[in-house]
Amino acid sequence: MARKKQRENYGTGSISPVMLAKLDKDGNPVLDPSTGKPQKVQQRDKQGRLVWRICVTLGTEEYTDSQGRARKRQLKAPQKVFHGTLEEARATCRQLAEQYEHVSKDSAKLTFSAAAKAWEDSMRNANRVTRSTLANYVYAAGIMEEQIGAMPLLEVREHDIDKAIAGIRASGRGNTTVCKVFAATKRIFNFALQREWIVRNPLTLMDSPKAARIQTRLSLSAEEAARLRAVLDAEEHVVMREFAEKENRMCDWASQRANGGDKLWGRGQVRGISRLSCVAALRIILATGMRRGEALALAWECIDLDGGSIQVIRSLSKDMELKEPKSRAGVRTIAIDSDTVAHLRAWKETQRQALLRVRTVNADGSTSAVKQDGNTPVCCNDAGGLMDYYNLSRWWRAFREAHGFCGLKIHELRHTAATLLLGNGVDVKTVQTRLGHATSAITLDFYAHAIPANDKAAADLIGGILGSPARASAEVIALPTIAKTA
How far apart are CA 428 and CA 449, in angstroms? Predict the structure, then answer.
């Protein structure tokens, strides 16, 4: 006898069998003799398991129908189709009811766009990422909103994400963008899961789209790096000379006027300091492999000129915000060579003298000279403050074109430092520490191409350790010949 259609309730959850019309051997519906209507039987899957529909009610809401009458309706979580026995369906129903216990009825109508906006506000209030990083997240989330923004968050499933990703690709966006959109979307669903707006993140078990392979960055050879350092020395000498000549002219001009001293010592900024700072920044990056933001965030308290080391404790973002380095491994102490120490020592004294000519306005309205101390940026602007992230980029573009390093990016100086160290036998762990990578695997992923340069030397070394002195020639053993039998 066919199972009668029925519903079982378990708190806020309910179970009902999925019914189909009963067919005869010819595929025609079997009619009920008493009613003349098709008989119903419960659906089974290909494995013979019974199919059930499980539903969880989140609550009720009042609404007004088309005729103006006040009515109530249930707000339900997305239905789940279950394959198995009745007892298994009952257990699953109870489990789902417990999962949705803390999900409010308002969550049933919460769209992806609303959740994305709430997540953005939370990220901004928490202040755990820089403005530029948050802007990138929001941009990526906005791309996903174009696809599923109006969908209720509870109803989004894996196939909806797959369809959205396909739509994003169809709009002409590349693999890297798709990867970032996927990551931002996953963050939003995790945020909703923490707020108990949903009971599962549909992206958890999905594979992230593969980002486009990063084009191999350039790195200078040892000869090219040495030439760049020599060019920086020459540039520093030229800028120092021009700066001194300019300041001497200012002194001559001031001595011929009654209030000339106020003009000389009361300037809001001294032109030329930032240009010298750019030279110092490039020198530090090339010598240490530091990131650009880390070099621009350096203060004199972080540099031990006597001990020959630099302590990296913060980084400057593109939004001119001081922040912690990218990872805990980014906080590190890096040794510097004696030549770099000498140039930094000379620059520190030059900067000290130059900043005395800059006047700053105090809180009470009075003015005072800018005095160099431990908090003074090593690479400063013309007023003694932090150098703008993009000003260094503009200076570098002009400098590289003028000296034959066309197309070379500042970050590639970091790659140059790492490649030269690995190529000259420095162990990966030491290079990892200097670069501030979280693991040596990251260092190997980026710079493994530099290690084969030592392969021949390694082969000769192991040969010398394991073998006796090399023979003049290899020995050939003559084997006896055997005549063939007929």
Answer: 12
